Amino acid sequence: MKKNPIGIFDSGVGGLTVFKEIRKRFPYEDIVYFGDTARVPYGPKSKNTVIEYSIQNARFLMQCGAKIIVIACNTSSAIALEELKKIFPVPVIGVIEPGAISAVENSKNGRIGIIGTEGTIRSKAYSKSISKLNTNTEVFSEACPLFVPLAEEGWEEHRVTRITIEEYLKTLLQKNIDTLVLGCTHYPILKKTIQQVIGSNIKLIDSAEAVTEQLDEILPAKETSIIGEDHFYVSDNEDKFKQIASRILNRKIEKLIKVNLGESWYLS
Ligand code: DGL
Fold this sequence. Notes:
Blueprint: E1 6-10, H1 16-25, E2 31-35, H2 47-63, E3 68-71, H3 74-87, E4 92-94, H4 96-106, E5 111-116, H5 118-123, H6 125-133, E6 138-143, H7 147-152, H8 159-169, E7 179-183, H9 191-198, E8 203-206, H10 207-218, E9 230-234, H11 238-249, E10 256-258, H12 263-266
Parallel strand pairs: 1-2, 1-3, 2-9, 3-4, 5-6, 5-7, 7-8, 9-10
Helix pairs in contact: 1-10, 2-3, 4-6, 4-10, 8-9
The structure holds D-glutamic acid.
């Protein structure tokens, strides 16, 4: 790698929704993406486990020379961001705060819905972040664990997905929310069907888009025509990663390296 890259990690493939937005906004940057496909999902795991995995993932990115670490995973961002900020000597940004800022900016009636994994919802990270930004808001949350496998299955517009969305969002839709945060890497994949179910009066907030705004403030703009390199790493299941990645990115990932979960790859 010629330059220090932006490091992005996620529990698996879903964080490519964040990668995609960052790549679009920063075409000249090198990017290293790590998906912890051996240990996904993080959503139902305990706080300590998510923190431990997140530290290991960030250490790996540091070994790749990352100049900034983006935690694409909402669950890791909700649970491990503060810990990582304390440990690593580069800026570490998560997706929660950018998503919260965007929700507050977009909501007119201050009634905001949050959907995410069990870990993210349990942490109340979005609610805390939103009420810090604006005390005149009311936040309503719902964990939607089945959205992750539905997105991975490629069932973006399947009737089972529609029914599942209707079921999970039933209560939220009675709360008169005008904004709904997609608080999980996989949910932007289901965006179209979610929007159809909730109707056009509710604004969807995509944390993947929101995080690039924050990166914009940290990374200086560059005038160059040199296109940045992409480097993809996973901890398991390369073929499945490649298959889902091609649907998310609309292109093939040529080179994907598997790194072993052992001390050697994350200890400096
Ligand atoms: N990446 C996770 C998130 O954004 C979803 C998948 C998982 O549970 O690990 O919360």
